[in-house]
């Protein structure tokens, strides 16, 4: 009987791992199934551009996996039962269960209002393609009005900064405001913060600092200091969260639902489950938890792939890098910031800005798309056969 590998999620990490496992493991011994809710590959790193009006590529997953032997199941994951090694899914046909021997969990994260009243009902976000398209439709409507409109972006993390600057540049007829809970760009170096402020002034973005939003209404947001900010379209980028599926299934998770993994991305409670990216709570080489980011997804995916192949083929499991080197921030199409960090996660004094940083970020986006949409890189002639590896108990995995 073939070893059943089920990959949940076909984002940057899921598509990469599925393709690389198909390259490195013999199809005579393994059966790889990818479960994804949408039929196309979503460039999450560019969803703010999609919302602002740009067209971005969305390769069909059926084409991405064509000829690889990977099975694609278009369905939404509703539950995971690691004791029975089964995944419950829902689709147009009613859904069902998918059994597995090894589970790769890469369902990522989604926008979260963190209990702020009205955020879920009235705010837009750019954490998923349908959400980005809804915001795009709203912005189209505002641009069609004689009086224009106001866009309020709540949250000055990387997503908030990129969203505000992209909308301001792509839709100059709209008034854009960026609300920061603290100082704008606080994690950046002094020079990078100055560059960010100049970019906001150049693009006509109003920055409201040290302000906490307490409620979102249809046409305004209410702040903790009693002020109200008018908004025709509020974009919520002030938080991300993972879904409750892993916790509900009994996997060991953190307080915010991320799966606790060991150095090889293996669940510490269920050794048949590997988790990566935003879904995983992994400790980096600097001894600090890896942040939710595309870079973390890449490094954890490489480590998980190496671990799965090593375990199943009886080879030594290599230790790959788990680093977080810095942030690449787009400020519209022709400007950006490249901010490197030290081992403590603090910004280094120097940064790269302007067109050079924008070109670097554009290169990263192109590479991420190519790697994810060509996950097999051409299947090799000879792939590894599986070894007769006995099941690993939870106690052995932790040890």
TrEMBL record:
Q: Which residues form the FAD/NAD(P)-binding domain?
A: 4-295
Q: Do you know which InterPro entries this protein is assigned to?
A: FAD/NAD-bd_sf (IPR036188), FAD/NAD-binding_dom (IPR023753), NADH-Q_oxidoreductase (IPR051169)
Swiss-Prot/TrEMBL keywords: FAD, Flavoprotein, Oxidoreductase
The record's SUPFAM superfamilies line, in alphabetical order, gives: FAD/NAD(P)-binding domain
Cofactor(s) this protein cannot do without: FAD
Q: List the PANTHER family.
A: 64 KDA MITOCHONDRIAL NADH DEHYDROGENASE (EUROFUNG), APOPTOSIS-INDUCING FACTOR 1
Q: Which family does it belong to?
A: Belongs to the NADH dehydrogenase family.
Listed name of the protein: FAD-dependent oxidoreductase
Q: Which organism is it from?
A: Streptomyces musisoli
Native organism taxonomy: Bacteria, Bacillati, Actinomycetota, Actinomycetes, Kitasatosporales
């Amino acid at each position: 009987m073939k070893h059943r590998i089920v990959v949940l999620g076909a984002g940057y990490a899921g598509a990469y791992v599925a393709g690389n496992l198909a390259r490195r493991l013999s199809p005579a011994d393994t059966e790889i199934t990818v479960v994804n809710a949408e039929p196309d590959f979503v460039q999450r790193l560019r969803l703010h551009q999609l919302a602002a009006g740009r067209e971005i590529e969305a390769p069909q997953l059926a084409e991405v996996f064509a000829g690889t032997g990977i099975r694609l199941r278009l369905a939404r994951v509703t539950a995971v039962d690691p004791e029975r090694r089964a995944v419950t899914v829902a689709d147009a046909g009613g859904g069902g269960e998918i059994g597995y021997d090894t589970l790769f969990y890469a369902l990522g994260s989604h926008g979260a209002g963190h209990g702020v009243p009205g955020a879920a009902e009235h705010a837009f976000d750019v954490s998923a393609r349908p959400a980005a398209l809804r915001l795009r439709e709203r912005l189209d409507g505002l641009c069609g009005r004689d009086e224009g409109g106001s866009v309020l972006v709540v949250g000055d993390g990387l997503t908030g900064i990129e969203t505000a600057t992209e909308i301001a540049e792509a839709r100059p007829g709209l008034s854009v405001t960026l609300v920061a809970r603290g100082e704008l760009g606080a994690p950046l170096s002094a020079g990078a913060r100055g560059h960010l402020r100049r970019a906001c002034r150049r693009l006509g973005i109003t920055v409201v600092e040290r302000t906490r939003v307490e409620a979102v209404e249809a046409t305004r947001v209410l702040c903790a200091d009693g002020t109200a900010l008018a908004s025709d379209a509020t974009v919520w980028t002030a938080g991300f969260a993972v879904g409750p599926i892993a916790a509900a299934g009994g996997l060991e998770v953190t307080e915010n639902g991320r799966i606790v993994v060991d150095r090889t991305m293996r669940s510490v409670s269920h050794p048949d489950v590997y988790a990566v990216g935003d879904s995983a709570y992994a400790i980096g080489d600097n001894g600090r938890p890896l942040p939710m980011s595309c870079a973390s997804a890449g490094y954890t995916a490489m480590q998980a792939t190496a671990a799965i192949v090593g375990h199943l083929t009886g080879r030594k499991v290599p230790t790959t890098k788990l680093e977080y080197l810095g942030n690449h921030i787009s400020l519209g199409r022709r400007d950006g910031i490249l901010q490197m960090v030290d081992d403590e996660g603090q910004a280094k004094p120097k940064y790269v800005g302007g067109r050079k940083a924008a070109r670097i970020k554009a290169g990263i986006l192109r590479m991420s798309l190519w790697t994810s949409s060509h996950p097999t890189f051409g299947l090799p002639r000879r792939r590894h056969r599986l070894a007769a590896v006995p099941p690993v108990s939870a106690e052995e995995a932790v040890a």
